[in-house]
C-alpha cells in the first residue's frame, strides 16, 4: 500500500483529536486552545477544498548545528514535539552550495555536478537548472514556491529553475541580512532596511495563503540565511546580526562546544592537514559567535510559528508535511576548528525534524539519514514520480512508524575549486568515520573514541578495518541510484 494511503487513517485520527480539542476550548473546559490548535492542527473549514495530495513545506537554515535546535522553543514545540526528530542526520557534503544542490536534485555531487561553492565545478553555474526536483511536483499539478537563499553564485541574469510557480530568490547581498535583492517572482526588489528572515517569512506565508486558496496541493521552500555569518556587498565579514528584540538574549549562554572533549584539542598532530596547523582557540571569540548565531535563529524560530499559524488559518495544516533542517553543520572550536566543509561530526551533523499526517508525535529515529534522502521522501509522501535517477532513500516507512532496511555505509565528501574538484572523500558507518584526499587519510573509531580525538588510520590493529572501508569508499564515490544505498554487511573487528 502506498505511504500516503497508509497515512490517511492516522491523519483522520489527528483531525478527530484536534476537533475534540477545539470543542473543549469552546465550551470552556480546557485551557490554551491556541497552543493546542497549532500543535495538533484543526479541522479544515467546511468550504476549504482539501487537496487530493499532501502539501510539503521545507524550512532550511544555513550553517546550523544540530544542538542549536535546543534554543528554538517554538520549532521544538510545533515540529519536534508533534513529529519525528532524526537524531543522526547528516549533510554528506557539508558546504552550502553542494548541500543545496543535493536538495535540489536528490543526487550526490558526482551526479549533479556541484562540488564546491565556486570554481569550475562549483556554484549555480555547475547545476543544470532543468534538473531541479521542484519540476516533478509542478508537472504533477502542484503549486510550487521558493523564498530565500538558493545556490551560491545565483545572479539576477541567471536562468530561473524550471520547476517553480513562484520564485523569489536572493540574488545580490545574499549574506548581508539587511541590504539585499530578491528576484521578486519576475520583478526584482531591492531591500535596504528590512531584515532578511522577516522578508522570507512574509513571502513564505503569502505563498501558502495563495496556494491554499486554489485548492491545489503545494510545495513551498523557505530557505533562510541565519545563522550564517554576515558578508557585506563590499566583502566585509562579521557576526550574524539579530533583530533588535533578540540582541543580547544569549550573551551569557555557554556554547555547547565548550563541553566537548575535542574543544581546543591539545594535540592535533595526528589529525588531517586541515586541522593539524591550527592555533589554539580564543574562547571569547567562540562565545561571541555562538551567542550571535543563536540570537539570529530566534527570528527563524518565530517564522516557523508564523508558517504553522498560516497553514492552520488556511485550513491545510492537517494536510501538510513540514520539514526543518540545515544545509550543513558547524564546528565551534572542536579540534581547534571553526566552520564547515570538513569531514568531522560537528560539520556533518544537522537537525532534521518532520511533522505531518500519519507521523507519530514526539518520536525520534536514529536512522543514519542524509539530506540526499529528502527529495526521495518528498516524492514518496506525495506519490510524485522522480524524473531522473536519485541517490537517496525514502524515509516514509520510518516516518509512519515501521521498520525499514537501510544502508550501513554513507558516502561523505568535500570538494575544492581546483583540479578535478574533489578534496576529501570517505564513508561513515555506525562505528567508523573514514576518508582520504588521495595522499593522506583519517580513520576514527567512534565507538572507542566518540569525539574523534585519535586518528587510528596507521594503527596496525585497524589495518583490516581500513582496507574494508577503502573498498566501500571506492565503490561509493561513483555511485548512483540504488548503488549509493547498499548494505555491505559487518566490518572486521580491530585486532586485539
Structure notes:
By secondary structure, the chain is α/β, with parallel strands linked by helices. Helices cover 29% and strands 16% of the residues. The strands form four sheets. The protein has a ten-stranded mixed sheet with strand order 6-5-4-3-7-1-10-13-2-14. It has a four-stranded antiparallel sheet with strand order 15-16-17-18, with helices on one face. The N terminus is likely disordered. The chain folds into three domains: 43 residues; 348 residues, Alkaline Phosphatase, subunit A (3-Layer(aba) Sandwich), CATH 3.40.720.10; 76 residues, 2-Layer Sandwich (Arylsulfatase, C-terminal domain). A hairpin with a 5-residue loop joins strand 8 and strand 9. Keywords: Glycoprotein, Hydrolase, Signal. Pfam families: Sulfatase (PF00884).
Q: Give the strand content.
A: 15-25%
Number of strands: 18
What spatial order of strands do you see in the largest sheet?
6-5-4-3-7-1-10-13-2-14
Report the sheet with the most strands, covering strand number, pairing sense and barrel closure.
Answer: 10 strands, mixed
How much helix is in the residues? 25-40%
Number of domains: 3
CATH class of the largest domain: Alpha Beta
As a whole number of angstroms, the C-alpha radius of gyration is 22 Å
Count every helix, treating DSSP H or I runs of 4 or more residues as helices: 13
Give the N-terminus to C-terminus distance in angstroms.
Answer: 48 Å
Instruction: State the CATH superfamily name of the largest domain.
Output: Alkaline Phosphatase, subunit A
Mean pLDDT across all residues, rounded? Answer: 90
Which class do the helix and strand fractions yield? alpha/beta
Query: Residue ranges: pLDDT <50 for 5 or more in a row?
Result: 1-51
Shape: globular
Amino acid at each position: 500500500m502506498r505511504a500516503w494511503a497508509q497515512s490517511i487513517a492516522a491523519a483522520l485520527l489527528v483531525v478527530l483529536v484536534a476537533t475534540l480539542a477545539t470543542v473543549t476550548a469552546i465550551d470552556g473546559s480546557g485551557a490554551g486552545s491556541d497552543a493546542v490548535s497549532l500543535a495538533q492542527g484543526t479541522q479544515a473549514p467546511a468550504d476549504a477544498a482539501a487537496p487530493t495530495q499532501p502539501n510539503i513545506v521545507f524550512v532550511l537554515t544555513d550553517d546550523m548545528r544540530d544542538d542549536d535546535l535546543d534554543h528554538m522553543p517554538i520549532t521544538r514545540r510545533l515540529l519536534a514535539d508533534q513529529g519525528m526528530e532524526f537524531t543522526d542526520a547528516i549533510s554528506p557534503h557539508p558546504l552550502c552550495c553542494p548541500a543545496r544542490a543535493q536538495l535540489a536534485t536528490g543526487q550526490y555531487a558526482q551526479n549533479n555536478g556541484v562540488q564546491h561553492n565556486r570554481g569550475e565545478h562549483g556554484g549555480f553555474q555547475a547545476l543544470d537548472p532543468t534538473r531541479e526536483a521542484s519540476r516533478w511536483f509542478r508537472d504533477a499539478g502542484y503549486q510550487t514556491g521558493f523564498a530565500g537563499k538558493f545556490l551560491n553564485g545565483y545572479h539576477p541574469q541567471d536562468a530561473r529553475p524550471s520547476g517553480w510557480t513562484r520564485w523569489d530568490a536572493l540574488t545580490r547581498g545574499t549574506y548581508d541580512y539587511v541590504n539585499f535583492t530578491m528576484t521578486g517572482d519576475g520583478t526584482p526588489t531591492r531591500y535596504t532596511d528590512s531584515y532578511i528572515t522577516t522578508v522570507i517569512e512574509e513571502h513564505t506565508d503569502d505563498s501558502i495563503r495563495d496556494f491554499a486558496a486554489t485548492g491545489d496541493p503545494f510545495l513551498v521552500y523557505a530557505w533562510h540565511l541565519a545563522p550564517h555569518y554576515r558578508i557585506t556587498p563590499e566583502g566585509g565579514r562579521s557576526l550574524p546580526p539579530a533583530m533588535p528584540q533578540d540582541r543580547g538574549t544569549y550573551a551569557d549562554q555557554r556554547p555547547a562546544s565548550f563541553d566537548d572533549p575535542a574543544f581546543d584539542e591539545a594535540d592535533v598532530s595526528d589529525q588531517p592537514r586541515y586541522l593539524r596547523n591550527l592555533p589554539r582557540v580564543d574562547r571569547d571569540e567562540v562565545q561571541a559567535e555562538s551567542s550571535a548565531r543563536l540570537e539570529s535563529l530566534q527570528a527563524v524560530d518565530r517564522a516557523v510559528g508564523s508558517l504553522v499559524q498560516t497553514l492552520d488559518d488556511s485550513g491545510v495544516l492537517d494536510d501538510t508535511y513540514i520539514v526543518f533542517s540545515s544545509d550543513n553543520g558547524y564546528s565551534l572550536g572542536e579540534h581547534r576548528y571553526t566552520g564547515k566543509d570538513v569531514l568531522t561530526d560537528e560539520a556533518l551533523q544537522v537537525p532534521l525534524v518532520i511533522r505531518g499526517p500519519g507521523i507519530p508525535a514526539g518520536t525520534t529515529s536514529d536512522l543514519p539519514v542524509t539530506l540526499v534522502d529528502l527529495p526521495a521522501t518528498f516524492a514518496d509522501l506525495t506519490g510524485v514520480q522522480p524524473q531522473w535517477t536519485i541517490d537517496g532513500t525514502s524515509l516514509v516507512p520510518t516516518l509512519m512508524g515501521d521498520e525499514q532496511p537501510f544502508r550501513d555505509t554513507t558516502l561523505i565528501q568535500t570538494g575544492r575549486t581546483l583540479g578535478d574538484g574533489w578534496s576529501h572523500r570517505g564513508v561513515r558507518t555506525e562505528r567508523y568515520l573514514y576518508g582520504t584526499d588521495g595522499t593522506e587519510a583519517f580513520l576514527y573509531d567512534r565507538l572507542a573514541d566518540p569525539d574523534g580525538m585519535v586518528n587510528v588510520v596507521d594503527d596496525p590493529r585497524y589495518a583490516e578495518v581500513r582496507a574494508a572501508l577503502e573498498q566501500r569508499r571506492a565503490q561509493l564515490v561513483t555511485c548512483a541510484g540504488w548503488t549509493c544505498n547498499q548494505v555491505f554487511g559487518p566490518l572486521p573487528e580491530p585486532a586485539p
